[in-house]
Design a protein that fits this description.
By secondary structure, the chain is an alpha+beta fold. Helices cover 17% and strands 31% of the residues.
């Protein structure tokens, strides 16, 4: 039996494109590309980049939150929790970074368990620059079935400025299509313990 070469080439091309598309969707189910937290200097969120933009940013009924103690010690780890509450979504995800008072990305994130991961500069699909190693964390494929994630962040040893955490969250309907999902943003600022002690010792 003879096969039409153009027909077979078309099938092959279609299969390759389908594989690439599904691989991209699968990869993004384990977290979006880097620089999608909505922080200053980032590329907005997945809403701004034209992916999950069916609705206005923060227009859903869920609550997207960052919980963390109000202070940190330079050079030490603190624990944070990112969560969705009152959500009707099927899947959820997030991406987070931390900036100092001058909008510099600072500190190092650390995952806890299999539900989060620190974005690696070696992950070409996420486009993280080498100088930002350790500065972005997000959910994994296993993590998108959760609504709460616990992570750790280590403050720089010379940190004195207030630190602001920026996170973007995705509330997905689970149909495998980026349309129909809600994107949220959240911020949380904390102070260095040393800064608070200095302020307390110098009242106005």
């Amino acid at each position: 039996m003879k096969y039409d070469r153009k027909f077979m080439a078309g099938i092959t091309t279609g299969f390759i494109m389908y594989s690439l598309f599904t691989n991209v969707l699968y990869a993004w189910s384990g977290g979006p590309p880097a620089y999608r937290t909505g922080a200053p200097g980032d590329e907005g969120t997945c809403h701004d980049t034209g992916c999950h933009n069916s609705f206005e940013l923060n227009s859903g009924e869920a609550k997207f939150l960052i919980a963390v103690a109000g202070t940190y010690n330079p050079g030490k780890f603190i624990e944070l929790e990112i969560s969705f509450a009152e959500s009707a979504g099927t899947f959820h995800g997030f991406e987070m970074t931390a900036l100092d008072a001058h909008d510099n990305r600072v500190g190092k994130f650390k995952k806890t368990g299999k539900f989060t991961r620190v974005i690696s500069p070696n992950d070409e699909s996420r486009g993280l620059r080498k100088e930002d190693k350790g500065k972005y964390i997000e959910h994994t494929v296993a993590g998108n079935k959760r609504t709460r994630w616990k992570i750790k962040w280590k403050a720089p040893t010379d940190a004195t400025d207030p630190i602001t955490f920026y996170a973007a969250g995705n509330e997905a309907n689970g149909d495998g299509n980026p349309a129909g999902d809600f994107i949220y943003t959240a911020t949380k600022q904390i102070q260095a313990v040393s800064s608070l002690k200095t302020s307390a010792g110098n009242p106005d």
